[in-house]
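Bug: token stream looks shifted between consecutive jobs. Job 1:
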Amino acid sequence: MKLNYGKTFLLGFGFFGVSVIWAVYNAFVPIFLEKKFGLPPEWIGFFMTLDNIAALLIQPPVGAWSDNLRSRIGRRMPFILIGAPIAAVAFGVIPLANVLPLFVAGTGTLMLSMAMWRTPVVALMPDITPSHYRSQANGIINFMGGIGAIIAFLVGANLYDRNPAFPFWMGSVLVIIAAVMVFIFIKEPHTYEEKEKEPSMLTSLREVIADPDKSGLRILLAIFFWFLGYAAIEAFFSLYAVKHLGLKDSDGARLLTGLSLVFVIFALPSGYIGAKIGRRTTIISGIVVMSAVMMTMFFLPPAVLISPLAKLPVVGIQLNPDSKDTYLVVIGVLLMVAGMGWALININSLPMVVDMTVPARIGTFTGLYYLFSTFSAIVGPNVNGWIISLTGRNYNAVMIVAPIFMALALVMMIGVKRGEAVMPPAAVAVD
């Protein structure tokens, strides 16, 4: 069985929709919270974790539930067809809310609906892809997710300048289109590995912890630590750009376009690199790259970080309000390098986790992956919010703490011994 590139690209529309929603959310919701509602950094950090708290409680059991569900349209598709439309409506309401309770109601509905369909749409990839092609397939999926992030950051930044609601309405439309594309073009397999009893999420976690090899536990802890480090860029970058670099509201999203663009470009090569030299080695390389970038961002002064290197249309930023010229700046290049490092990590981590189990429990182990990454996404913004607050609202402080978490992820990955691609049995020669 070979990798079906066309089907995998079409499946990527599901992750495309997820990425559009969260890229717009992470870029502009912190600005709303600071400017519209006047929340301090520690409360912004807490608010930015609420979606992950919902995901932590919902995504793992939904993954296990989807493993056991049987319906005429498959075991993953019902979650997508219910969750995506609700998410689209809630997302469109968020920018219209001018009082905090209504804002919380809109974001809360979004969080619950997104948590209902993210794990099933991700679990579709290993459902239809053989083990030895999963790094490449995950590269394609994340390529599509990166395209979604680029659209969210680049088009969203330009739309935000016209009306802050426009990026959210764009996301609502795109997530509906993405869900429809997956439903029309992806046909789930209707033959499953049946088993007498499906182990619960808690049982699976206990098995991972009790495993003498500890590879499963180590990679899950590594996932926790590297997402903790990445939260410095993801949750607070828009405010970092405004408060530390002195840029306008939409420029943070434009700068992150470079990271997403390189992530997209490097997504497919990262899958092939993981298959060629090993997933573990590839991930470790990405951790080193990410750490170096964030330390460089910390030590370079703002004037150097926004120094122009060359005129660059579309993804450049406008340094002079009297001129329409846009420029590639130093921090833009650093974020592009970070995009390469993040691709090396992200493309190969989920395939490692799901290749530590049997096909019948892929949804459950996908849920474990999101259990640890989501718990990290809860802790990360809170930690970074308090760091910013305790350092006198110094948004640069998070860039020196993040590499510490990356170093802990590196230590965990060094001890991982399993999770590489499983090759199919060699064909037996017949005379």
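Job 2, same session, no restart:
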Amino acid sequence: MDRPPSPLFRQVAIDAASGTQIGAALTTHWRGVAAFTAVAFVLLAALIAFVAVVEYSPVHRVAAFVDARGGLVRLKAPLDGRVTRLAVSDGAIVRKGDLLAVIGSERLREEGGGERTAVRQSLEAEKATIEREIDAARQEAAVNRLMLERRLHGLREERETLRADIRSGERLLASLVAQSDHVASVAAEGYLPRQQAAQKRDEVSAQESRLASARGAAARVERDIETSEAERRLVDARLAGVIENRQRSSGELNRLRVQSEMDAEQVVRAPQDGRVSFASLAEGQSVEAGQPLFTIAPQDDPLIVKLLVAPAAVASVRPGVEFKLAFRAYPQERFGLFAAKIDSVNEVPSLPSEVPQAAGGSEPMFVATASLPGALHGTHGEVLPLKPGMLADALVPIESRTVLAWLLDPILRGLNDSVGRAARGGGAEARR
């Protein structure tokens, strides 16, 4: 009779495999595990409460710069040339219309010499020619006037002589008429021959003829005098016309000269009151057209901050939004952040070329204006000076939501997209 097979393991091993010893170990360490598990559940609940209650707001980092409320005025060189005169110093207070600088430009000709000098010499030569023509016209008029004065003097003397002759002839005629009448009356009574009375009448007739001739000569002299006086007036009028014409030409030459001077020399004046500043600029320095020369900041004008907002962040930048500023001149690690508030945002974006501080950008941007407190104070209470043109970074909050809302936002957005696609698919199937 066959014997039954012996077991592979002893009873002790089977009991150990059944967990008797492991259960005893667990029973020994259970209290510590329970405490650890309770602490873990408490921490998990605190974490869930934290993400459900605490709000988090990400920020847009927007480039900003300090500016004057009235705006800075930047003056550029109007032409290529050289600074022939610098009338102000850096930091000077100027009034509107004050002279700042004079920019001179004179191109050189191929044959040598300055173009401006050549134009000036040509205009001076033409002006000298006009002056000589005026002098010649005055001399000719003086000669003609002298000849006419001599003629008039002779005619006036002849007129006076004829008038005297006429007066004498009239007296003689009156005497002859009286004699003729007396002789005629005596001859009529027969005391004198009639032939003698006829002779007296002939003398009266001859005197009347001589008197008429003298009167005719006097009339001719009067006409010659009037003609000579008219000729003298004509000489004066011609001279005045020549002088006026030449002076008009001289005035045109002066205008051309002034225009040439203006074209070759530009005066830069202050467009408003303020404090002027400029970089390395000195008399005799060469400048190019469009090169910045001066910056004028309105005096006692409050400072503001202008933000250069990209289109992607413009929805978060609204009037009334409070944000923090980190000035690059005052590092955040040492001086901290400074509070500011947005006042306005431009409705129309500006091109990078329109905003000097945005040089190097490629996309349009919206310019926002923010107000600053009256003075900035450091961590130890010291006043931090601000100047127009200082750069800063504006930390503009996007949206304030709980941490849980931010964590669930991608999931909820994905669910909404899935539901929307399903709804669109069902509507399309129904239409088919």
